What does this fold into?
Amino acid sequence: MIIGKIHSLESFGTVDGPGIRFVTFLQGCPLRCAYCHNPDTWCVDADVKYQWTPRQLFDEVMRYKSFIKSGGVTLTGGEPLMQPDFCREFFRLCREAGVHTAIDTAGSVLNEKTLSVLDFTDLVLLDIKALQPELCKKVCGSEGRNTLRFLDELEQRGIETWIRHVVVPGLTDDDRLLDELFEYVSRYKVVSKIEWLPYHTMGVFKYKDLGLNYPLEGVEPLSSERIKEIRKRQIDKGED
Ligand code: SF4
It folds into this structure.
C-alpha cells in the first residue's frame, strides 16, 4: 500500500498554479536551500499529522471540487518527487476525475519513478535555483544538473512548465545572471511563464524552533521596487 507523508494542506491556494487550487505539501527534501522557508519539511521520516493513501487525499480534495473547478491540485513540499509513487497515483486519480494536476519541484530527484509521475501531470512549476553549478551549490547544496535535465525531459514530453526563481540579495540578485537564466529558459517551447520571486524572511522563526542556524542571517528581504524592476526588465526583454 502507498502511504504519503503529508506535511500540510491548503484548500484555497492561489499562488501555486492557475486558478484556485488544493495544495498539498509533502514531507521530505534532498536540497538545503539557504533561503528555505520550510525547513520543517526536510526530513522525510518526520512524524507528520497526515499519513494518507493517494485515495484518502483524493477523497479530501473532492470535498472542495466546486471551489477548484477552474484551478486544480498542486503537489509541493519539500520536494514532492521524494514520494513518486504517491504523487503518480494521486495524479492518476485526479486525471480520471478531470482535475488539473500541477507539481512544484526542483527536479533534483531524477529517475524512472519520478519521471513516471509526468504521465499524469498537466503543469510543472520548476524551481531553478541557479544555472551556474558553483552558484547553485552555494544556494541549495547541489550543482543543479538534474534540474536542467528535468527541463529537457519536460520539453521532450511537451508538458507545460512555469519556471520559478528566487532572487536573493548577495547570491542571485544580479542582472547578468537573471538575463542568462531568462535567455536559457526562453529557448524551451514548453515554458509558458517565468516567475521571479523575491527572497523573504518569513520562515526564519522555524530555524530557531528546530535549533538550526539560519544561513542567510542578516540578509534583508528583496525590496518590492527591486522585484518590480526585475519583472519589468524581463517582460521588456521578452517583447524585444
Ligand atoms: S527545494 Fe524547497 S523545500 Fe527543499 S530546501 Fe529548497 S526551498 Fe526548501
About this structure: The longest strand covers residues 4-13. The CA atoms of residues 114 and 203 lie 28 Å apart. Residues 29, 31-33, 36, 38, 41, 77-79, 106, 140 surround iron/sulfur cluster (CB under 6 Å).
